[in-house]
Write a structure and sequence with these properties.
alpha/beta; Rossmann fold; 11 helices; 12 strands; about 40% helix; about 15% strand
Amino acid sequence: MRASTPGTPAVAPATAGFRLILAAWLMLAAGSHAAAERAPVVAIDWPFAETLIALGVHPAGVADAAAYRDWVGEPVLPAGTVDVGRRGAPHRATLRALAPEAILVTPYRRTPGLERIAPVRERSLHVPGADALETAIGLARELAGEYGREPAFERLRARLEAAIAALRRTAAALDGPIYIAQFMDAAHLRVFGDNGLYGAVLARAGLANAWQGGTNHWGFALVPLGRLNAEAARLVIVEPVPAAAATMMTGSRVWQSLPAVASGGLRRLPPVWAFGGMYAAIRFAEALEPAVARGG
């Protein structure tokens, strides 16, 4: 089953003229941002991009950059980062113009022919039976070692431990489980279970996950609104929220009758990529703690 992720506009086929223009633009961008310590690497999947940037390494290119800004949010893509097209169909001419030393990709996003452009480094971040948070920490440690960013990794690890400790203290005063969900449209949500990044953070902090149904390989189930009918006092919605869903939330009787909504236990978090890396886990814990603390 494929995770439902937002699409991005298709990139027009390259022409010789386009290649020349792109190459010239890349040279100007490189000169303008020489102090940014840009790495000659392209991140097809967002966990690689967010982890590199959080470590202080700026990838030359990232796939689906506009959608990254909507669904990941932080860390912000550095100025001059080149959008290399869709994650599932990166733009070959753009990749060749960048001439990266490596392309970082998960098995899910790898497409034929990338190895003819640059060495492909494939890493799975969703391993059945593995702890998603430990996998994310391992990726950050590996990239930090490769790019000489070990001190930055240690700072991130300390920040993660502090965020989870704060969330654990808040969780100790709470009763009952909590739903973590994200709207796909006005009638369906991703609801996150124990085998994903969000679930791993909840477990570390001692928060009970209200969703005990089945999940897919990526740690979520796609369910209609009516499935969230357990007597859970808290429901956390992770943005972005589609416009149709936002409209529905103001007038739907089904939505208003959900126990968490009716009791005032609804909370919203800023965009945090559910399938992200170590930095996503930090941001999720830091955003969740004040959200669940409000109202007790």
